[in-house]
Design the sequence.
């Protein structure tokens, strides 16, 4: 466990995320090749690329779902390359999944409550939460933030797809996130739901940075300051949304490919 | 795995809802009150034989099966080593306490019982540490291997476990001025322990620990991505289940006055699984319903079979056929049958329909 003083000392100076030469092999397949990436605290970034470009593998390496085959990952200055996922989450990293990864047998409020509990003490508590429990209240305000309050007692298995995507985001906002990885949060959403998503992303507190993987350019380019392009497991271009949109190489490889 | 997948449903629904006094009263099921009254006045209406052979067995085996229900229903981990932990705790109480084997240690029960519980927790943690690295059928295999290994060890080790004979002449303690070996006191002791274990499991299921366990059952990878140490949490569940199994095992020794390797045999381990599954692995009360059916069959099937001109020792055949029928028609056990019947009775209410549907 790092002390509060240690955390504070790293907040001001260090980058939120710093990847150096991260490579991930699956047998003979190189899903990520020598990826180096630096993201400042509070920075909002999009990662674009065709299917199989290594975007989700990049997320899995950052969260520790799969450790990288080589390279280092620093989170707010701390080397977390070999930390298990839960240690990274407790340090303020969050993620959402491309395919909703929720607890279908539990209610909406219990799903969010677990997320809030996971990044606080008392994970092994045998005492039920009481009325006006701080963590229950925290869970309820997160549900409010993603507009799910009317259905907070429903089982997640009964929720519509778009509602599950919103719940997915609520789980990622639990506790005090410092950096969030959004894996295609707009996939499968209706235009109205996309607009709501953009609202939620734009209204995040300024100190929370994120990386978003998104195929929908309307969503991606409206909510980020910088864009990283990936292709075949490598980063091949970085720039502002305007630069990326104007880049002929990018247009040929990606934007022209019928996406968006 | 159908067993691992017939999950405990709905237990968490009220977990994060404020539980005020009136809401708690509203949740009291009239059927539960009736069952409570019946089991409390049972000594007034039933013979000593029924109290010991049917209900005593139901409470003790039900408690051990409850520990499996907790692991399987809330944690998705089917452990066949719960009878082993119960038997181990029984052995510890017998060995450390007063017994008929020469050169015994002779600790009083109030030292032997805590020692047995603590050692059972250690053993539970060790079994858990091995088992949590596996999933589904491999968890069943590794815990089955542990159960078999402990049976053969106890059977062949004379220095500690007194081999095939086991430890005999273990007296039931006398405390609070009551001889707990008498039929009625032992009935209430076994009922009390079973009730407290049921209460503990039902309560913990909705506390953060149990809720997180259900989250791990549904999606371990996501739980890690929410900040939970999944394996440590699973091992903690094994420790909690070990305490419950150990309590059942200690009662078994006191009830029999002895413990032998047969108590921890592989077939006894499988009986616990059958009890939990027949009753229904989705609800803590299922363990006791399964145990009651088992005790009734074990006691009376012999007479019934003999009456039909069959070999009385074939009562296991009946249990096996019953198991087959239950797993085939209702993977969530008797409890599942009951829930479906009730839902059909009040069809139309969307809430009622949602509780019965296993996804899985």
Sequence:
């Amino acid at each position: 466990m790092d002390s509060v003083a240690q955390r504070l000392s790293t907040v001001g100076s260090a980058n939120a995320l710093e990847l150096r030469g991260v490579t991930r092999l699956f047998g003979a397949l190189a899903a990520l090749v020598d990826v180096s990436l630096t993201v400042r605290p509070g920075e909002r970034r999009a990662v674009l690329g065709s299917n199989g470009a290594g975007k989700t593998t990049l997320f899995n390496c950052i969260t520790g779902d799969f450790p990288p085959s080589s390279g280092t990952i620093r989170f707010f200055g701390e080397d977390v390359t070999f930390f298990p996922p839960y240690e990274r989450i407790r340090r303020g990293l969050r993620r959402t999944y491309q395919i909703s990864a929720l607890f279908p047998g539990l209610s909406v409020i219990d799903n969010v409550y677990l997320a809030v509990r996971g990044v606080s003490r008392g994970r092994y508590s045998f005492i039920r939460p009481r009325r006006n429990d701080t963590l229950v209240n925290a869970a309820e305000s997160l549900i409010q933030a993603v507009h799910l309050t009317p259905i907070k007692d429903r089982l997640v298995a009964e929720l519509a797809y778009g509602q599950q995507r919103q719940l997915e985001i609520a789980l990622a906002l639990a506790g005090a996130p410092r950096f969030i990885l959004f894996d295609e949060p707009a996939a499968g959403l209706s235009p109205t739901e996309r607009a709501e998503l953009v609202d939620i992303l734009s209204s995040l507190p300024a100190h929370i940075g994120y990386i978003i993987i998104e195929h929908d350019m309307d969503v991606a380019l409206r909510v980020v300051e910088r864009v990283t392009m990936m292709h075949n497991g490598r980063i091949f271009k970085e720039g502002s949304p305007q630069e990326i949109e104007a880049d002929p190489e990018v247009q040929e490889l990606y934007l022209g490919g019928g996406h968006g | 795995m159908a067993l691992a997948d017939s999950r405990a449903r709905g237990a968490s629904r009220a977990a994060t809802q404020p539980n005020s006094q009136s809401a708690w009263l509203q949740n009291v099921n009239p059927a539960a009150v009736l069952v409570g009254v019946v089991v409390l006045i049972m000594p007034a209406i039933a013979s000593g034989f029924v109290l010991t052979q049917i209900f005593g067995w139901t409470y003790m085996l039900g408690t051990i099966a409850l520990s499996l229900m907790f692991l399987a229903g809330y944690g998705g981990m089917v452990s066949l080593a719960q009878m082993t932990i119960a038997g181990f705790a029984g052995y510890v109480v017998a060995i450390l306490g007063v017994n008929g084997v020469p050169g015994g240690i002779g600790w009083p029960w109030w030292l032997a019982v805590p020692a047995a519980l603590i050692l059972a927790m250690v053993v539970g943690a060790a079994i858990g540490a091995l088992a949590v690295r596996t999933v589904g059928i491999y968890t069943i295999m590794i815990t089955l291997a542990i159960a078999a290994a402990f049976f053969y060890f106890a059977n062949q080790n004379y220095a500690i476990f007194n081999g095939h004979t086991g430890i005999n002449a273990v007296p039931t303690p006398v405390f609070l001025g009551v001889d707990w070996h008498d039929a009625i006191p032992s009935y209430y002791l076994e009922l009390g322990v079973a009730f407290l274990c049921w209460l503990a499991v039902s309560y913990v299921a909705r506390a953060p620990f149990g809720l997180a366990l259900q989250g791990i059952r549904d999606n371990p990878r996501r739980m890690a991505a929410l900040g939970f140490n999944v394996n440590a949490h699973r091992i903690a569940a094994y420790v909690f289940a070990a305490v419950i199994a150990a309590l059942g095992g200690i009662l078994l020794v006191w009830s029999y006055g002895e413990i032998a390797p047969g108590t921890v045999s592989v077939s006894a381990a499988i009986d616990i699984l059958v009890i939990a599954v027949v009753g229904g692995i989705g609800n803590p009360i299922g363990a006791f319903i399964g145990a009651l059916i088992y005790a009734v069959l074990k006691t009376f099937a012999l007479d019934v079979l003999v009456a039909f001109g069959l070999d009385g020792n074939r009562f296991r055949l009946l249990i096996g056929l019953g198991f087959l029928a239950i797993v085939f028609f209702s993977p969530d056990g008797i409890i599942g049958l009951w829930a479906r019947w009730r839902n059909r009775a009040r069809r139309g209410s969307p809430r009622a329909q949602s509780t019965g549907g296993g996804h899985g």
Observations:
- Strands of chain B lie at 174-175, 178-179.
- The interface with chain A takes residues 7-10, 12-13, 15-20, 203-204, 206-209, 211-212, 214-215, 217-219, 221-230, 233, 236, 354, 359 of chain B (CB under 8 Å).
